[in-house]
Amino acid sequence: MNDKPHYHGHRQRLKERLCNNSQNLADYEILELMLGQVLPRQDTKPIAKDLLAEFETLGGVFKGSDERLKKITGIGPGVLTYFKLLREFWTRMAEEPMYVQDALSSPDAVSRAAIARIGNLEVEQFWVALVNNGNKVICWEKLTKGTVDKTAVFPREIVALALRHNASGVILSHNHPGGDPSPSPEDLARTMEIKSACRELDIRLLDHVIVTADRHYSFMESGRL
Asked: Taking the domains of the chain in order of start, what are their residue ranges?
């Protein structure tokens, strides 16, 4: 008699199919294998199908909040930690182009990094990319965390951060949890205040990028800087 649970053979067959032609795997089968890394002694097919029923897509599962994920039977601390690791891995891959470029020539690299890092958050965060004279990124750092619709940022904080890192240029970024990246009147006023404060110390404000989960708004592209 074989005492191994039925899903062991199924999981092995999935792994073989993954190695032979990964494109042939269904979305729930990809999730099965991922969950199997954390839940090796559990049948992960029902959990995978429940996740897709709740979040509809792999991207939806990947970006799901802990609160929603925990509602799925079988999702515990181990899976939540594993998903956090996967998100951080993917986010850092999205941030890499911002660092490896010799110089930033457009908002694209920063917007992709910001979308990956903060685009899907349910509260606003304000991040700053600092660049040297050649527009190469030397620092990408969170400045503040706010609420669902605002975050307090003071021009002096940004200037102090730039001086501390000997940066000559600043790129601002924050997220809009509501899904619309268009700047609010407060965003417009705050950006002009920061621009004025930076100008006094010969620090260039290169852009302010507002992001959502899949879109961005660039002050520079829109001619507002």
From this structure: 6-75, 97-218
- H/E stretch holding 85 reads helix 77-100
Segment 27-61, tens digit of pLDDT: 999 999 999 999 998 999 999 999 999 999 998 99
Pick the CATH number of 97-218 from 3.10.20.30, 3.40.140.10, 2.40.128.50, 3.30.10.20: 3.40.140.10
Which of 195, 111, 186, 210 is closest to 159 using CA atoms?
195
For 146, the 3-state DSSP assignment is coil
Q: Which amino acid is at 21?
A: N
pTM equals 0.83
Q: Mark residue 139 as left, alpha or beta (left: phi above 0; alpha: psi -120 to 50; beta: remaining).
A: beta
Given a contact cutoff of 8 angstroms between Cβ atoms, the answer to whether 174 and 118 are in contact is: yes
